[in-house]
Amino acid sequence: MNDDDTDHHPALLITGCSSGIGETAAAHMALRGWRVFPSARRSEDVARLREAGWEDALVLDLADSASIDGAVEQVAERTGGRIDALFNNGAYGQPGAVEDLSRATLREQLETNLLGTHELTTRVLAHMRRQGRGRIVQNSSVLGFIALPYRGAYVCSKFALEGLTDALRQELRGSGIHVSLIQPGPIATRFRDNAHRAFQARIDPQNSAHAATYRAVEQRLAGAGASTPFTLEPEAVAIKLAQALEHRRPKARYHVTVPTHLFAALKRLLPTRWLDRLLLAATASERRTR
Fold it and tell me: Is 154 a catalytic site residue?
């Protein structure tokens, strides 16, 4: 961090470090001189992180307020009360048509991707307020500003996260605390595997008006080795994270992949009806190629 942090390694808390973006970001920022506190929801993942040398790894379940409070307290105890940055990366995707999402299913998606992230942010903000500075980075998605069919729960959570973050950024103006969003797009992680498990656990494809489409959805989610065009490695997100944490004047948004740049431009340029047609054609083509 370029804010006269010459007397210590700045402390960074990251959620969702069991694999993928979180684990890669932790390693990337540690190499840049940060004291990283990688966290994961499951104790076995935290044990694996500690075995790999992450002494500051801790359990943090975004769906559990007590877990959130406990994790923040642990970081504060180990750093003398200082938390310099937070990377809200932990999330999962719940596939399914909007009409097939039960209230409980949608609530569960929001508990992790939005409400837990918000609660953790407010807990960390209390420390940053006392310090008079800090960095908060939210890991959003191309689906944080573009909607696709059969991803409504995840789209809902990320649209809401972006709106909440925009309001927070405005409210923190002049506080010394900077807030940024990263919008990755397709990244090579286990995200699809987790989404497949969520689909199988909470969606009943046999009793749905979308049963025929769900067969293609399941095939896509279970597709071994298949990837979306322009998919990048998690390191691409870690590079943007470093910019958001270390630049003196961080951007409000960081696009990562070609689809994110492309759809951000198309959303500005195209009428909604045209954009809908393009997105529906793209998803139909994706299903046909699986």
Answer: yes
Q: How many domains does the chain have?
A: 1
Do 182 and 139 form a contact (C-beta atoms < 8 A)?
yes
Tell me the one-letter amino acid at 139.
N
The percentage of residues in the chain with a pLDDT greater than 70, rounded to a whole number, is 94
- Tell me if 273 is assigned to some domain: no
66 domain residue, yes or no: yes
Range(s) of the domain holding residue 172:
11-92+104-190+231-256
Closest CA to 245 of 35, 72, 29, 81: 29
Q: Is 203 left (phi over 0), alpha (psi -120 to 50) or beta?
A: beta
**Which domain CATH number covers 75?**
3.40.50.720
Rounded CA-CA distance 227/189 in Å is 10
Q: Convert the pLDDT of each residue in 205-215 to its tens digit.
A: 999 999 999 98
In this prediction, residue 1 carries a pLDDT of: 44
CA–CA gap between residue 243 and residue 261 (Å, rounded): 17
Spatial strand order of the sheet with 35-40 comes to: 58-59, 35-40, 11-14, 85-88, 134-139, 177-183, 253-255
- Give me the catalytic one of 92, 150, 154, 214: 154
Judge whether 76 lies within some domain: yes
Residue 176 lies in a domain: yes
- Distance separating alpha carbons of residues 156 and 159, to the nearest angstrom: 5
Cβ atoms of 241 and 180 within 8 Å: the answer is: no
Quickly list DSSP for 82-95. ---EEEE-------
Alpha-carbon span 164 to 231, nearest angstrom? 27
- Residue carrying structure tokens 């270390």: 246
Phi and psi for 36 in degrees, rounded to 5?
-95, 135
Is 230:187 a contact under the CB 8 Å cutoff?
A: no
